[in-house]
Amino acid sequence: MSDSTVDADEVRHVADLARVDLDEDDVGRYADQFADILDHFETLDEVPDVEAEPDLVNVMRPDEVEESLSQEEALENAPETEDGFFKGPKVS
Amino acid sequence: MADAHNAFVTEETIEGAAEGPLAGATVAVKDNISTEGVRTTCGSEMLADYVPPYDATVVSRLTDAGATIVGKTNMDEFGMGTTTETSAFGATTNPVDEERVPGGSSGGSAAAVAAGEADYALGSDTGGSVRCPAAFCGVVGIKPTYGLVSRYGLVAYANSLEQIGPLAPTVEGAAELLDVIAGPDEHDATTHDAGADSDYAAAATGDVDGLTIGVPTELVEGADDEVRRVFEDALETYRDAGAEVEEVSLPSVEYGVAAYYVIAMSEASSNLARFDGVRYGESGGFEGNWNESFAETRAENLGDEVKRRILLGTYALSAGYHEKYYEQAQEARAWVRQDFEEAFADVDVLATPTMPVLPPRLGESVDDPLQMYLMDANTVPVNLANLPAISVPAGESDDGLPVGLQLVGPAFGEETIIDAAALLG
């Protein structure tokens, strides 16, 4: 049995985690496509362990205060604002 | 005839400095690169009205060098596609053949250059998005070494893989544009000192006498017959000019597409979480709670391929699957890197067909996502290994469709691949 068989419930669960609403047509279509794609991803099981040195390392420095966008500029693209703040839906 | 190929999302002129190496030149800029005061949509409904309050570093460097920006080019939504058909602003068509796709995701940039609507263009390349459209439209495109060009102001899709790169009618032109945009930037901590005082344009001589070219058999065997014929002819041109061509093997690249898509989708699922309809985009309304509102605006304003990648990326990172997909993909990435390093101990550059296929017809490849992903087999290993690569027109199929040759170099080996590519263009 392939581990990658994806059923509609799993697609709904992932869509919920990802905060993307799906209609029922999407759920069925994605379930079929995901099965194909994840089957291909399964080939990664065959990849051997590799000893590798990371070539990027963290470089730290103290924070410095610099010029930045004004509050107005930062809010320019927000669909709704209130008293100089972003306006979002209620949290719970 | 204004924009016959739907190459632009927004046609607007941004004047450059009066003098500089690009004075008098026009440049088209991919619509995921921020331009202050000019909307930057990423080909998405989500950002249809987004106007950046600042310029990307590459944009300031272009205008400081005297270039005039002529518009923002069409692209697959957020760079997710190989054909420029996933744009919310309609597909771009290929100037070589109107019934075919220009490649993607920087299809508008390649089409603008191929149609002469701009002298040069900038694209971004996460898994081949500069090289693929360059190959399909018969122009030159460069994916620089990771860290050579600043990503500040590039709307992120998969940060660990992507670089901004130039497109131009000639190798020398692309190199000239790379000279302007390359070099360290305090706003992008992954940039490197290499490229600070570059003169890549001067390297474009086409002198390949004594150059050793490795051909990875794994990336040639799967190509269409027509593509292989043009590729073999190009190798013959290199032999005639004094290069030595030898076969090499990169066994890891068989896993390239799987590794690339797992990593790119995982990074995308995190990066695109910022599009919540609160700071930018369409508000999801105030009826429900945060999660409901967020899920609604994303459902309405993101396209099919973008949702697919967000969901698959979320899946690959979720409890129980993280080790199986994401960690294995990172192992594969390390293996690909090691394979290339070993190959470059013996050869100077590697050569492959840029794309294993000719440009598909419009509508032909959008319904089968896996088939579309597999078209990227020859380009994604380069991003996984952080290496530089160039696509240069190698010739045409019997029907007159362009075929690109890809040359890959060692890290920061831009001069070598530019010099070698100049033999063909």
Give the arrangement of secondary structure elements.
The complex is a heterodimer of chains A (92) and B (425).
Chain A (H helix, E strand, L loop, with lengths): L7 H10 L6 H18 L29 H5 L5 E2 L2 E2 L6
Antiparallel strand pairs in A: 1-2
Chain B lengths: L7 E3 L15 E5 L26 H8 L3 E6 L33 H8 L5 E6 L5 H7 L2 E4 L19 E6 L2 H11 L18 H4 L8 E5 L8 H16 L3 E5 L7 H16 L18 H12 L2 H14 L4 H22 L5 E5 L15 H6 L5 H5 L4 E8 L5 E7 L5 H8 L4
Parallel strand pairs in B: 2-3, 2-4, 7-8, 7-9
Antiparallel strand pairs in B: 1-3, 4-6, 5-6, 5-10, 9-11, 10-11
Helix pairs in contact in B: 2-3, 7-9, 7-10
**Architecture of one domain in chain B, CATH level 2?**
Alpha-Beta Complex
Total strands of chain B = 11
Number of helical regions of chain B: 13
Write down the overall mean pLDDT of chain B: 96
Number of helical regions of chain A: 3
For the termini of chain B, the CA-CA separation is: 28 Å
Helix fraction bin of chain A: 25-40%
The fourth-level CATH homologous superfamily of one domain in chain B is: Amidase signature (AS) domain
**DSSP, total strands of chain A:** 2
What is the highest CATH level, the class of one domain in chain B?
Alpha Beta
What's the gyration radius of chain B in Å?
Answer: 20 Å
Number of domains of chain A: 1
Biggest interface, chains and residues, is: A-B, 48 and 64 residues
Distance between the termini of chain A: 41 Å
Question: Structural class of the secondary structure composition of chain A?
Answer: mainly alpha
**Content of β-strand of chain A:** under 5%
Question: Segments of chain A where pLDDT lies below 50 for 5+ residues?
Answer: none
